[in-house]
Amino acid sequence: MKKLVLFIPLVIFLGMGVFLYKGLFLNPQKLDSALEGKPIPAFQLERLETPSEMITNEQLKGKVSLLNVWATWCPSCKYEHPFLVMLKRQNILPIYGINYRDERIPALEELKRQGDPYHTNIFDKDGRLGLDLGVYGAPESFIVDHKGIIRFRYAGPIDQRVWSETLYPMIQQLQAEAAKDGAA
Amino acid sequence: MRTLTKIIGGLVLLLSMATAAMATPVDTYEFKSPENQKRGLSLAHELRCPQCQNQNLIDSNSPVARDLRLEVYKMVDEGKGDDEIIEFMTSRYGEFVLYKPKMETKTYILWLGPVGLLLLGLVIGFIFIRKQRIGGSTEAEISAEDQKALDALLKRDNK
After folding, report:
1. B131 touches A at CB < 8 Å
2. Measured between alpha carbons, how far is B82 from B64 in angstroms, rounded to an integer?
3. What φ, ψ does residue A154 adopt, rounded to 5°?
4. pTM of the prediction?
5. Chain B environment of A31 (Cβ under 8 Å)
6. Which of A5, B50, B59, B101 is the S-S candidate for B55 at Cβ 3.0 to 4.6 Å?
7. Which of B64, B91, B95 sits opposite A136 (nearest CB)?
């Protein structure tokens, strides 16, 4: 018994060691999204392409979709843009763009020049929808299921690796869920 | 005496310069009342900027922080309570934006851990000291056989 007591400090030390060692590999930049599992915030905003048209959160229901926050002032968005254009050609799911704190004309010109991967663009000029989504930079992407619930958030540019390792498996799973719901 | 006033004067000057050198972004926001201003600023001080992550909403220059700051001020002027405003922020940006995490089951260790460790230390120290007092006062016991052997040795050395 007495011998065991002497081991207590060692046990505590090892416990702390494991805990701190784990801490070395955490990414402090990565924040959990507060919105995963919640529906898309209610909004009513102009469509980027046609100002007279209004888009609401209701329109994002029905299909599994990708919401992508982008802007002309954001260099990482330019980096991910070609990949999104390629995704659109594969016709896997609709990609909705949120044009975040941007100007309409340069944004439309950019899409003309670089190709337009988006099904529709929501024009979030003053960043209000972005604020409701908990966006703190661009690019950010959200996977939304067929009921309009946000299921996953990814902060940063999407590339082949992120897509095939994380996003695509999740999208396939959600599309299977949606198909089951449709059949029922 | 005069040197003392000089030193104090110098210190005051230094301090005032030091505070002037700490630049924080200035917003041209008009609060409805001084009370609102006080509450708005103290709330913004307590919330962390989600982008820069090591500054509060007041100190941060990022556009997101500016928006959130103004949002906080607006809500204060609308007469919303502190809890409501904090709820608004955490429902969008997560618990991360709070410098003071809430008291919940998952944060008990944060709040109570240090106190727990202090108590543990005190208990261990107390036990240790008591043992020493009790143990130190008793003389070492020696069996009869050992005593004989010891006596024999002592006799041998004394010869």
Report:
1. no
2. 20
3. -130, 120
4. 0.72
5. 50, 93-94, 96
6. B59
7. B64
